Amino acid sequence: MFSDITFYVKGNTIEVNEQDFLLGELTESCMNINDDQFHEIYFSFEKLKKEFPTELPEQEEYDKLKEEIFRIDSLLRVHKIFQVLGTPIETIKSYFENKSVLESWDMFCQLCNEYNGIIIDIYSFNVTINRFITQWIRNLKKCSPDDYAAAYYDFLFSPLAYKYIVNPLYDEGFIYSNTEFLSSLNLVPRETIEGSGKYVIAEYYHTSILQSFLKIDYLKGLMAGHSIRKCEHCKRFFLVTNGYKTRFCDKPSLEDPKFTCKQIAYRKTHTRDSNDNNPKYQTYKKAVHRIMRSCQRGTITEDVRDRLLSKAEAIYHTSATSPKYSDHEFEEQMSSDNLYKLCSIEPPKRGRPKAVKNENG
To answer: What is the DSSP letter of 276?
Structure first.
């Protein structure tokens, strides 16, 4: 049931239903429920509420109500966050097929109430954080956890906060709550990634409120240096993990999926992110520097250096000309372990090589 969301925060990742995601990744998915998609969900549910009977319905009317809530559920499940968290009806859909109106009506009413809460939370969170991102995060001169925290403080306690933060005064029936509804919070040892053999003391949470989950995922992400930005070209939200103020996302373009949105934006406007704000370029630059330093220390030969540099350049070229790698995936591709593996080279031992003693010394 959706009323039982359990998850673990582990450093810069979050574990949900035995799957690991970067902090902010599932929030990004929720925020990419665009206006048209939300309006279809919202107005479909409002229509269902208006037609909701005050007394126990006849079977035919009940079947129509069930079909409509199933359809609303399918609209939610298009989005990654609800594929991961599940939805209220996911585990009990078959229950309604085998029960009479009398047996299942109370359960159905409870189910509809849960969808009502989900829809309220999507609107309240998405609209509020959209304003925070576009009017606070976007204008930061520096992007670090300290800067993100200060921006969120200024946002919450701004004299005009009542206009920016969704509240019942301006948005009837909707509210961005400053109180997190958590059933429990514990600290438990947890493997960073299943099978890695590495452990952290993870924060275990249990909640039944979507908004509480989203705020923990998003705000913990800010404290890990992750930020969600809005692409100036396609208007989709995307996750940035290294504090770069990149203007365009690296998702497959809506116009031509063979290219990234960033590449299409440059073709149209001849405007590109500076290298200082280009995550892939900065990752590539760090990889080159790392390889060169290893050669200078004598831990790898010039031949190995050249092979690694050639492989890094080839991967960078692929990422710069196609949507094959997201920024995070490209960072993993450029890791030392992966480059050595791709070149079939045994990684050198850590540290400087021992100096050779002079036999005459």
So the answer is: G
